[in-house]
Amino acid sequence: MTNMRSTASPGTPTQPPLRDIRRVFERQRETALRLRTSTAAERIEKIKRLKEALQAHTPDIYAAGAADFRKPPEEIDLTEIIPVLGEANEAIRKLKRWMKPKRVWPSRATWGHRGWIQYEPKGRCLIISPWNYPVNLTFGPLVSAIAAGNAVILKPSEMTPHLSALIVKIVREVFAETEVAIFEGDAGVAQALLEMPFDHIFFTGSPAVGKIVMAAAAKNLASVTLELGGKSPTIIDASANLKEAARNTMWAKFTNNGQTCIAPDYVYVHSSVREKFVNLCRDTLKDFYGRDSEAQKTSTDLARIVNERHTLRVKGLLDDATGRGARVLVGGIVDEFTNFIAPTLLDNIPGDAKIMQEEIFGPLLPIVPFEHLDDVIARINAAPKPLALYMWSRNKANINSVLKKTSAGGTCINNSVIQYIHGHLPFGGVNNSGIGNSHGVYGFRSFSHERAVLKTVISSNWLFYPPARSLGRMFVRWLKLFI
Prior knowledge:
Elements: H1 18-35, H2 40-56, H3 58-69, H4 73-99, E1 102-104, E2 113-121, E3 124-128, H5 134-147, E4 151-155, H6 161-174, E5 180-182, H7 187-194, E6 200-204, H8 207-219, E7 223-227, E8 233-236, H9 242-254, E9 266-270, H10 274-289, H11 293-297, H12 308-323, E10 327-330, E11 334-335, E12 340-341, E13 344-347, E14 364-370, H13 373-381, E15 388-392, H14 396-405, E16 410-413, E17 434-435, H15 440-446, E18 448-456, H16 470-482
Parallel strand pairs: 3-4, 3-6, 4-5, 6-7, 8-9, 8-15, 9-14, 13-14, 15-16
Antiparallel strand pairs: 1-2, 2-18, 7-17, 10-13, 11-12
Helix pairs in contact: 2-4, 2-5, 2-6, 3-6, 4-5, 5-15, 9-10
């Protein structure tokens, strides 16, 4: 649902008939077979064309992002364009190396044989992207899929119509639909696509919808990469650099107005430094976005909630928390007619409040004091595994304790969200927060099948052929001792 009070949209796209989806899917069959033998140079050429189109349309991306939810140009550069350019450049530089078969040493039981891993395309792939970072989360996975040699169908979100329309334009300028096709529409289009027997599905979105995608993939035994979310905690102990922790956490949380899957979802701060930390956060928010809600409404650095429905959802979390006794430390102002919610800090939140159970995906940040780090670790472990965990500390023992005793998709020490743009690290969740990895070589592998190949040079199989011979029995006994 888009907000009808917002800037005029480019028009709701016509739902593609099911026969069109089936037609394109069938046409990509032959393409997928042909792409199995595509060279690194051919794949790189396509990635370069996509990169050039993205650069050429950068002013259009600024305009579309502003129209959909007042996203600032600098934020678009940092969170939408630069990550895709980084993915493209990494693939362009290293794809030949990634594609090379990987030699493996024989085991003791397979002396006389050569083995290697050969990377082959999975085939026809579906990428379903979300609305919060539509350019990044459509084209980033697409680079990996192309690098691995696949045919692709894209399904962007209908909730950011200006950006979605521009993504469609770019895709159709750059690619033939037999190689990369795109379909707009609502959940019905996604459902129709999920009924097709794709070889791999890459989905970015909520854990709830991720379960639906995984169930649909299971019907066709398709492999999946699920980039999900969850409640990502931040821990600030007594040894932390509080000023840097406050500034960085406010930036990480309120970029895109909190609509970020890896944003801090709640903060544990040691009781001895809680008051100082809150004051530093309050001052930081004034510096970043304005001294009060009226100034923040005119800030060019603060995006909006994507639509009225999500504004009301986030407002519901705020109302439920305050209704149960939570205290608003900063912010708390909501204007649902303009999809504005002020950056808000809360404390004194009861554990059964919805805001402590559900992923917030908006500009509300609960602050929870603690005395003992083991209590924090226990509470984190009692919840589903998060996509990210952040810790601010100068105490090595505390850092090691958190790393060893918790599980998360990724972790930053003395920073937040920056792990996403580190192209040499795998990005992904664990269990409830995701399955599989993306970015760089990890994205290439997600869209590839690692085919095991063994070639016999000297065969010793005859030792095991019946009837059993004494030499064969001796060899087996030797293997059991030394394998």
